[in-house]
Write a structure and sequence with these properties.
alpha/beta
Length: 196
């Protein structure tokens, strides 16, 4: 990734909870390139990525199970002195789509759980989320094409833009942001329209 954001993770242990997709694969590659070490299990992680399906119509795990997994990791991080948890979710967490009510509700539940974890485990553990709108590679990897009709930027995002947002939350220099969802949606949530 030329021109990618650079941070210094200095060997921080990174783990993934959830399924991979092109965004997750690119995030893991960027974390490795910035000095992170990817682990198989999340218990010893300094940075935990909580990956969720990003396209409507996909099956999500029960948000309560994911919250329990994240909370278990947060307890371990707090006992070691700190860490970061980043939830990768759909922008529908903050702005539901009428055509995808269940998907929107499940993402909203994850967002609420993320904020509860941020309150419970701050200041030692920073817990945030990145909410993806329409992101394309060769195909749509997040959101759906209908979102583009109400995206002020007028295009789908690219994977590099999605990765940069996740790296922001993982950056050791970022020490004051917790409980937030950064929308990487081209302004979709701001320009939300009547056709959804």
């Amino acid at each position: 990734m030329s021109g990618a954001m650079e941070i210094d993770l200095n060997g921080a242990a990174v783990a993934l909870d959830g399924e991979t997709n092109p965004i997750v694969d690119a995030v893991l590659a960027a974390l490795r390139a910035n000095g992170g070490t990817v682990l198989e299990a999340g218990d010893a992680a300094d940075i935990l990525l909580m990956s969720n399906p990003l396209r409507p119509g996909t099956t999500m795990q029960d948000p309560r199970c994911q919250h329990a997994d994240a909370r278990r990791a947060a307890v371990a991080m707090a006992e070691r002195g700190g860490g970061r948890i980043v939830f990768l979710i759909s922008a529908t967490a903050g702005m539901p789509m009428r055509r995808h009510p269940r998907f929107s509700m499940e993402n909203a539940a994850i967002l609420a759980g993320m904020r509860a974890l941020a309150m419970e485990f701050g200041p030692k553990v920073l817990v945030n989320a990145v909410g993806f709108g329409a992101v394309e590679d060769e195909t749509m990897v997040s959101g759906d094409k209908a979102m583009l009709s109400h995206t002020p930027v007028g295009r789908a995002g690219c994977i590099e833009e999605a990765v940069a947002a996740v790296l922001f939350f993982c950056d050791p220099l970022n020490t004051y942001t917790t409980g937030q969802m950064l929308g990487v949606d081209g302004g979709w949530t701001a320009g939300y329209g009547r056709n959804f």
